UniProtKB/TrEMBL annotation:
Reaction equation(s) it catalyzes: L-threonine + hydrogencarbonate + ATP = L-threonylcarbamoyladenylate + diphosphate + H2O
Family membership noted in the UniProt record: Belongs to the SUA5 family.
SUPFAM superfamilies: YrdC/RibB (SSF55821)
Name under which the protein is recorded: L-threonylcarbamoyladenylate synthase
Keywords, in A-Z order: ATP-binding, Cytoplasm, Nucleotide-binding, Nucleotidyltransferase, Transferase, tRNA processing
E.C. number(s) listed in UniProt: 2.7.7.87
Coiled coil: none
Gene Ontology biological-process annotations: regulation of translational fidelity; tRNA processing
PROSITE patterns, A to Z: YRDC
This protein's GO CC annotations: cytoplasm
Pfam families listed in its UniProt record: Sua5_yciO_yrdC
Length: 152
């Protein structure tokens, strides 16, 4: 299914988005920097589909779009400098690479044991995360190696 949904979302659109995310479908959406592709980060099916769409090598893990609620569930750190960065720059266009929680689904783990996470300042992204009730894969909406999309 293809649907163009404008923000702010109506109640009907929020219901549709919740269904799309729970059915492990892929969404395209604006962020504060470029257009992104994403979906339920805990779904291997979503990750596989985005790898296929982007023609991205499997050894390049996806960053996750999160809210603060998800940070300590996904990542481990004990460094006050990380806390300082979070306080100074989030929400915003800063991606942090932190040690990943070893209990994450296998498709989110990589050889380095790290996870790239961003708390986006985009109200669209924040609302998508709230509606889905989980973090999103958040990668640029372009084929791997091509320029990122900045307009629709």
């Amino acid at each position: 299914m293809t649907a163009l949904i404008k923000y702010p979302f109506t109640n009907d659109n929020e219901s549709l988005i919740t269904d799309i995310l729970s059915e492990n479908q892929v969404l395209a959406f604006p962020t504060e920097t470029v257009y992104g592709l994403g979906g339920n980060a805990f779904s291997k099916e979503v990750a596989d589909r985005i790898y296929l769409i982007k023609q991205r090598p499997r050894n390049k893990p996806f960053p996750l779009l999160i809210t603060l609620k998800w940070l300590k569930k996904l990542c481990l750190w004990n460094d006050s400098r990380i806390d300082d960065l979070i306080e100074a720059f989030w929400p915003g266009p800063l991606t942090l690479i932190l040690k990943s929680n070893p209990d994450l689904p296998k498709h989110l783990n990589n050889n380095s044991g790290t996870l790239a996470v961003r708390y986006s300042s985009s109200t669209v992204v924040q609302r998508l995360i709230e509606l889905g009730e989980y973090p999103l894969i958040g990668t640029s909406a372009n084929r791997s190696g091509f320029p990122a999309c900045t307009s629709a």
